[in-house]
Design a protein that fits this description.
The protein is α+β, with helices and mostly antiparallel strands and 443 residues long. Helix content is 33%, strand content 22%. Helix 9 crosses helix 12. The longest helix has 29 residues.
C-alpha cells in the first residue's frame, strides 16, 4: 500500500503536447509512478534519450497543467498539486527541512473541492481529507517532517512527502533557527494579504486562472436592489460646452495647478456650479461624445469594456440652491434624484469618511462613487474589481482637473464605510456599495 508522492497525467481531457511523447513516459505517467523512483524507472525502461526528452518537455507539461503530483496514504489521495507554471526543480520528499506555512496561504472552497492556495503559489493544492486541515494548522509554526508527524499522527516519511509537495507549490517557506522565514524578513516590501491576492489575481503569472473578458455569465443581467427614491428628479442646467472649449483655462495650466484642496470657504458652492461639475465629470454620452444622443453606455472618462459600473451620489451639507440631503446623479438625464434616508445619519457618515479639512472649515458636499458590481462581473473574470479601481482613479483625476479649472476645492477620499453607505441608500452592499468619494466645495 503505497504512501508518498506520486506523479501522473491529469485525469480527463488534456491539451496534447507539441510533440509526441515516448511510449515509456506515456505509460509511467498514465499509470502513476512514485516521484522518488520516476527518473530511475524512466532511465531503466527508456534509456538516456527518454530521460533527456522528459527534462525537455516537463516544464511545458506543467504549464499546460497536464501533470499532477499527489500525496497518497495507503494508495488513497490525500492532497493533489497541479502546477500552473514550470517548476524550478523536481518535487521530492523533504525529511530534514524546517518549514512554515506562507503568510499568504489560505484555504477556500472551489466547487466541491477544498483548495489550499496563495498568490505566490505555483499552482493550487486540492485537499481530499478533513485530516489535512489539521496538518496545515500545524504548519502555522515552524516544523520538520518529524514535528509534523508528532502532531498529526502520520508517518514521518509521509509528512516529508507532503512537505515536499507544499515546498514545490511555494505554499510553505523555509524557516531559520529563530522560526522566521524570508517573508517575515522582508517587511520593506510591505505586502498585505488582501493586496497581494488582488494584485496577483488581476495580473496573474499562472495559467490556471482565466483573466479578462470571458463573459462567464453571458449577457444576462442580474436584478439589483435600487436606491430609495425620495421624490421627483431635479433636472440640472447644462453648461455650454462649446463656450467652455473656447474660453476654459488651458489644460497645461490646469494640470500644473491641480492640488488636493481641503479648505471650503464661507460662501457655499452653488447648484449651477455643482451642475457644471457633474456634467463635465460624470455625464453619459454617445460614442462620439454627444450628450443629446446618450444611451447610457459611454462616459466622459474611460472604463473597462465601457461597462461603467460606477454610480454617483451627492451628499450635500451646504449648497446654494439645493437642500441638504443625499441625491443620486442620473448620468443619462443629467439630473439629481433625492434619496429617502436619515439626513442626520448621512451627515454623520460623511463627516467620518471625509478628509481632514483645513483651518476648521467644514466640507460643503461629497460625491460618493458606488459600483454596481454585476455590471462588470458578468463580463470580466479575475480582474473585475481591479478594473473598478482603475475606473475610480480615472474619475478622480477627471474631477481634480475640472474642479481646478472651475476654481473649486476638490479632494479625493481614500476610505469610507461601504456597508454603512449601502444601508444609507438602501442597497445590498454585495450588489452596490461605495468604492470612492470626492469632497467638493467653493473656496
Amino acid at each position: 500500500m503505497f504512501s508518498g508522492l506520486e506523479i501522473s497525467f491529469v485525469d480527463g481531457p488534456v491539451l496534447a503536447p507539441a510533440h509526441p511523447l515516448p511510449e515509456v513516459i506515456e505509460q509511467l505517467l498514465g499509470d502513476g509512478c512514485p516521484v522518488e523512483s520516476f527518473e530511475d524507472q524512466l532511465l531503466e525502461d527508456g534509456g538516456l534519450e527518454a530521460l533527456a526528452t522528459w527534462y525537455a518537455v516537463r516544464p511545458s507539461l506543467e504549464r499546460e497543467r497536464r501533470l499532477r503530483y499527489r500525496v497518497l496514504r495507503n494508495n488513497e489521495p490525500m492532497a493533489t498539486f497541479i502546477p500552473a507554471v514550470g517548476l524550478a526543480s523536481p518535487i521530492e520528499a523533504m525529511p530534514q527541512i524546517r518549514v512554515r506555512l506562507s503568510r499568504f496561504a489560505h484555504v477556500r472552497r472551489d466547487g466541491d473541492a477544498l483548495i489550499l492556495d496563495s498568490p505566490r503559489a505555483l499552482g493550487r493544492v486540492a485537499l481530499h481529507s478533513p485530516r489535512m486541515l489539521e496538518s496545515i494548522g500545524v504548519l502555522a509554526n515552524p516544523v520538520t517532517a518529524a514535528d509534523l508527524a508528532t502532531h498529526s499522527g502520520e508517518e514521518t516519511a509521509w509528512c516529508a512527502a507532503f512537505i515536499g509537495l507544499l515546498c514545490a507549490a511555494a505554499l510553505v517557506t523555509v524557516a531559520d533557527d529563530s522560526g522566521t522565514t524570508a517573508e517575515d524578513r522582508e517587511p520593506v516590501k510591505g505586502w498585505e494579504f488582501h493586496d497581494l491576492v488582488m494584485h496577483e489575481r488581476s495580473r496573474p503569472f499562472r495559467s490556471d486562472r482565466p483573466v479578462g473578458a470571458t463573459n462567464r455569465f453571458g449577457e444576462s443581467t442580474t436584478e439589483l436592489s435600487e436606491a430609495r427614491a425620495g421624490g421627483a428628479p431635479i433636472v440640472l442646467a447644462r453648461p455650454d460646452i462649446a463656450a467652455l472649449s473656447e474660453n476654459d483655462v488651458p489644460f497645461t495650466r490646469v494640470l500644473e495647478a491641480r492640488r488636493s484642496r481641503r479648505f471650503h470657504g464661507y460662501t457655499a458652492i452653488t447648484l449651477d456650479q455643482l451642475s457644471e461639475f457633474l456634467f463635465r465629470t460624470l455625464r453619459a454620452t454617445s460614442r462620439d461624445g454627444d450628450h443629446a444622443q446618450a444611451a447610457g453606455r459611454f462616459r466622459v472618462y474611460p472604463g473597462g469594456g465601457a461597462c461603467h459600473p460606477l454610480e454617483a451620489y451627492v451628499v450635500v451639507a451646504r449648497c446654494d440652491g439645493l437642500a441638504p440631503g443625499v441625491y443620486h446623479y442620473l448620468a443619462d438625464a443629467h439630473a439629481l434624484a433625492p434619496i429617502e434616508c436619515d439626513a442626520s445619519a448621512a451627515q454623520s457618515l460623511i463627516r467620518q469618511s471625509a478628509v481632514p479639512m483645513e483651518r476648521g472649515s467644514e466640507q460643503q458636499l461629497q460625491v460618493v462613487l458606488t459600483a454596481r458590481f454585476a455590471a462588470i462581473n458578468r463580463r470580466y473574470e479575475g480582474n473585475a474589481y481591479a478594473l473598478i479601481m482603475q475606473e475610480v482613479g480615472a474619475v478622480y483625476q477627471t474631477m481634480y482637473l475640472v474642479a481646478t479649472a472651475m476654481g473649486l476645492a476638490g479632494c479625493a477620499v481614500g476610505g469610507g464605510n461601504a456597508d454603512a453607505f449601502a444601508r444609507l441608500i438602501g442597497t445590498n452592499p454585495l450588489e452596490e456599495s461605495s468604492v470612492g468619494a470626492f469632497v467638493l466645495g467653493a473656496i
